Amino acid sequence: MTKIADAASEFLSNRRVAVTGVSRSSDHAANTVYKRLREQGYEVFAINPNVTEVEDDTAYPNLAAIPDGVEAVVIGTAPAHARATVQECIDLGIKHVWMHRGPGGGSVDPEAARYGRENGLVMIDGGCPCMFGETSDLVHRIMRPIMQMTGSVPRKIQTGGR
Fold it and tell me: What is the C-alpha separation between 98 and 65, in angstroms, rounded?
């Protein structure tokens, strides 16, 4: 088991990050993550197969379409799409995956997380990158301990293969 803060730090050490589920609607949770990573100097890529542009940036239909690939992925789609994204990460050799979860169910699919771990991925299944490190903001820092009490943000994560 790894403390969530350590797993978040490792995830955020990757500077090329894709965010799935970035929408034409700026109030979507994936858009918040996308914009915050971009503001903090990450080279961030929006994944949305239904549009060619979001947040004034190019949107890609899938992870394989990103020139030169990425090091990490934030899943911000419905949980039903998580397994396919995890499989694409495995196929492309992307080792760090974060399934976003704010209040409510978020993007977490426990079976997809288990499958990713079994295939050597570091899976963070809950919480938000905006709650940790340089990407955090006051609102997310306040939300984190509250959401840890409810279980929406794990205190520890299982590492790959366990």
Answer: 20
Residue 160 pLDDT > 70: no
- Which residue in 45, 39, 36, 40 sits closest to 16, CA to CA? 45
Task: Give this prediction's pTM.
Answer: 0.93
CA torsion angle 59 144 80 39 (round to 10): 0
Assign a CATH topology to domain 2-154: Rossmann fold (3.40.50)
Instruction: Encode pLDDT of 92-134 as tens digits.
Output: 999 999 999 977 779 999 999 999 999 999 999 999 999 998 8
| b (16+ CB within 10 A) / e for 69-98 | ebbbbbbbbebebbeebbebbbeeebbbbb
Which residues fall within 8 angstroms of residue 32, CB to CB, at 6 or more apart?
A: 130
At 7, which amino acid appears? A
Residue 57 pairs in a beta bridge with: 54
DSSP 38: H
Per-residue pLDDT reduced to its tens digit, 67-97 = 999 999 999 999 999 999 999 999 999 999 9
